[in-house]
Amino acid sequence: MATLPQGRCAECGYDWAEPVETLVAVVRESPQRYRDLFGEGDGPRSRDDGVWSPREYLWHVVDVLRYGAERLWSLSLDPGAGLMPWDERVALSVRDASPMSAVVGLRAMERAADEWLRAAAETPAGVTAEHPELGPMDRDDVVRRNAHEIVHHALDIERGLRHQV
User: Fold this and answer.
1) For the segment 10-46, what is each residue's pLDDT rounded down to a tens digit?
2) Mean pLDDT per 10-residue run, the chain (165 residues)?
3) 164, 76 in Cβ contact below 8 A?
4) How far apart are alpha carbons 138 and 125 in whole angstroms?
5) What residue segments make up the domains of the chain, in order of their start?
6) Whole-angstrom Cα distance, residue 58 to residue 55?
7) How far is the C-alpha of 108 from the C-alpha of 93, rounded, in Å?
8) Torsions phi, psi of 5, nearest 5?
9) 83-91 long-range CB contacts below 8 Å, 24 or more apart?
10) Burial bucket for residue 42 (CB in 10 Å: 0-12, 13-18, 19+)
C-alpha cells in the first residue's frame, strides 16, 4: 500500500490511525462542517500573500472529493488502469476559483461528497491500483488521504476567514 503518514498531523491534529468508518463519517459530515465555517459569509475572493483564500480551499476540497470518487471507481471498476495523479494547483488555476462564490462551492461540495460516499460504499476493501507517484493504493488509502484533506483544509479556511478581519 501507499506509505501514509503515521500518528497525528502536527498542524491539524488529524489521526491517520482512525478507523476507516470514522473517516467516512468525516466526509459525510463535511458539507455541514464547511457550511458552518462560512456561516452567512462568502469569505474573501483571494489573498495577496500567496496563500489560497477560503474560497479557493473550498473549491480545492470539491476537487479532492471528485478526484477521490474517481479513484474509488477505478479501484472498483478497473484497477489495472491505475489511479490518476492530479496537480491541485493546475486544477485550481484552470477553474480560477477565486471569483466563484462559497455558496456555489458549498453546493458542489455537498454533491461531490454524496458521489464520494456512494463510491466508497461500492469499493471493495483490499483491491489495489498503482498510483504513479504514491505507489499501490487501496480504498482505505484513498479514504485516509481524502479525509485528511477535509480536516486540514477546514483549518486553512478558519485561518483565512480570521485573516480577512
Assistant:
1) 999 999 999 999 999 999 999 999 999 998 666 655 5
2) 87 96 98 91 62 88 96 97 88 71 93 98 96 95 98 93 66
3) no
4) 7
5) 20-163
6) 5
7) 17
8) -60, 160
9) 83/129, 83/130, 83/131, 83/132, 83/134, 83/137, 83/142, 85/131, 85/132, 85/133, 88/60, 88/63, 88/64, 91/60, 91/63
10) middle
Task: Tell me which fold the domain 20-163 belongs to.
Answer: Four Helix Bundle (Hemerythrin (Met), subunit A) (1.20.120)
Burial of 98 (0-12, 13-18, 19+ CB in 10 A): middle
Least Cα distance to 157 among 14, 47, 72 occurs for 47
* 8 A C-beta contact, residue 26 and residue 151: yes
| C-alpha–C-alpha distance, residues 32 and 39, integer Å | 10
- What lies within 8 Å, CB to CB, of 71 at 6+ separation is 83, 84, 129, 137, 142
